Amino acid sequence: MTGVLPIALEESRKIVQALLLSGKEYVCVMKLHREAEEKQVKKTLEEFEGTIYQRPPLRAAVKRRLRTRRIYCIDFLEMDGRNVLFKVGCEAGTYIRKLCFDIGEVMGCAAHMQELRRTRAGPFAENGDMVTLHDVAYWFMEWQQQKDENILRKFIQPMEKALVLVPKVYVRDSAVDAVCHGANLTAPGVLSVETEIGKGLTVAVLTLKGEVVALAKATASTEDILNMEHGVVAEAKRVLMRRGTYLKCWKSGEV
Amino acid sequence: MPRTAPPWETKRKLLVKAEDKTDPRYGHKPEERPAEEYMKYGVINLDKPAGPTSHEVAAWVKRILKLQHVGHGGTLEA
Of A7, A191, A212, which has the smallest distance from its Cβ to B17's Cβ? Predict the structure, then answer.
């Protein structure tokens, strides 16, 4: 299986949680065990759009109990004999191998997954910033020889890239170090908020420079946050920025 | 069942609550972090080759870049 595999380096490992839960997109070759009409294949694929039940396969990393997964879209691409090429956008934790098997069951001819390529994992897609292991080895060697920072930027993205799809809250410089120390984010520290934030949703707390400070759990909605004058708006869950990056602006008990 | 827009197509708007400036003496724009920090706070959009497992590939990246720790986002089964 090939395709998009985001690799988080050192400190940025803390954001993989956000990636694991994000939607995925695959291009898949499914092999039918008997000849079938293109019309029937298309119709069956369409039936799998929406919410499906799926029991994880025998070889799986999770408990094998029936669960539901959202299939956002399935697009038939082409068919050659018994090979069917399709594209599927789905919720995290959908097993495509199982999806193919189930499609085969519904069609009555049985089928299995032949090839799979992931074309998207959350904000990471098959595009210009995707690199191969060879690229990584080559550019890293170039960087070691030339010490030109632009070379690093050719194959490494800032971790903020991984949070493009996470709703954001921008805060004042004065609130940053408190959040770095695990404090909850309160209303006066907030400068701007993205729409459609709801209570309990994971949000990214950012500085005006666009650096991520922490991942937090919102305790108020976008509308509430805009109207609040005091009180907690988000609880810090995962702190990403190193303490002391910004000036400490809160009073402590000791003198 | 109807098709639904995948989450990566969601567009959000930014609503301003208050205005302020940021002090250039502290922190860096993500794309302007100094090299060492840039790596430590970096992610690679890797095209996984066929064959090795996601864990093996992550371990190779760790070795190539001479890092202590790396993690990968979502196993792509071998």
Answer: A191
Among candidates A92, A158, A209 on the partner chain, residue whose Cβ is nearest the Cβ of B42 = A158
Give the residue on A whose Cα is nearest the Cα of B7.
Answer: A23
Any chain B CB within 8 A of the CB of A87?
no
Residue (of A189, A183, A187) closest to A228 by Cα position: A187
Please check the confidence at residue B1 and state whether its pLDDT lies above 80: no
Q: Which residues contact A244 (CB under 8 A, 6 or more apart)?
A: A177, A180
Average pLDDT over residues B61-65: 97
Question: What chain A residue is nearest to B67 in terms of C-alpha separation?
Answer: A10
Q: Looking at the complex, does the CB of residue B51 fall below 8 Å from at least one CB of chain A?
A: no
Question: Are A159 and B43 in contact (CB < 8 Å)?
Answer: yes
ipTM: 0.93
Mean pLDDT of A213-229: 97
Burial of A185: CB neighbours in 10 Å, binned 0-12, 13-18, 19+ = buried
Chain B CB within 8 Å of residue A144 CB: no
Phi, psi of A111 (to 5 degrees): -160, 160
CB B10 within 8 A of CB A124: no
Q: Would you say residue A254 has pLDDT above 80?
A: no
Beta pairing, strands A83-90 & A24-32: antiparallel
Contacts of residues B59-62 at CB distance under 8 Å and 24 or more positions apart, as own/partner, are B60/A133, B61/A7, B61/A9, B61/A133, B61/A136
B76 versus A135: which is more confidently predicted? A135
pLDDT band at A252 (very low <50, low <70, confident <90, very high): confident
Contact B46 A122 (CB under 8 A): no
Residue at token pair 């001819």: A109
The per-residue pLDDT for A251 is 78
Give chain A positions within 8 Å (CB) of B48.
Answer: 1-5, 118
